[in-house]
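From the shared-data thread, chain only:
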Amino acid sequence: MVDEVKTGTRQRLLEAAEALLLTEPYDEVSVRGICAAANANPAAVHYHFGSKEALVGALIEDRLGPLWADELARTTAATGSVPAVVDAVLAPFVQLAGDPLGRLHLRLLARFVLGRHLTTWRGPWFRMGTWAALSPELSAQEGRRRWMLAFDLIIMRFGSPEMDEHGMTKPDLDTLRDFVVAGLTSPTGE
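Structure, as tokens:
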């Protein structure tokens, strides 16, 4: 029974945070507001997550992680080629951009990641070390740097408010893909 209450409160906090963050700027959403919207004790966010940043990180992982996990695991196990991995990364972004709620999730992701809010990511596909390992010809530091820049570009492009109006054309998507692949595979300048 206690575990059910903990899970129920945790889930209510995630849902309340999602509802608030999808309609209000990140900086204007408070821990107190999330707890009130979830009808939870004012200390519940700190108890279940530790901080607002950790709650938002958990929300992003919970909502968006499943979109990538299986395909990335299959792709890296099968080929591990950078172009195939980039395709597996981009496909859910395209899918999310085609849906109004998905676009809101992309904007939340962009605000959180590009704002460099610190959190401890749980899932392997949310940690840069996993990505750096996909580029064994690069040092771990260089692999992390390149993947971080690649994700910044992808997230910035798909999290942009102009995505609502214009979407992404096939030529734009192809150019983005080619640019990311080139950045990840170019030789080091040593």
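The radius of gyration is 18 Å.
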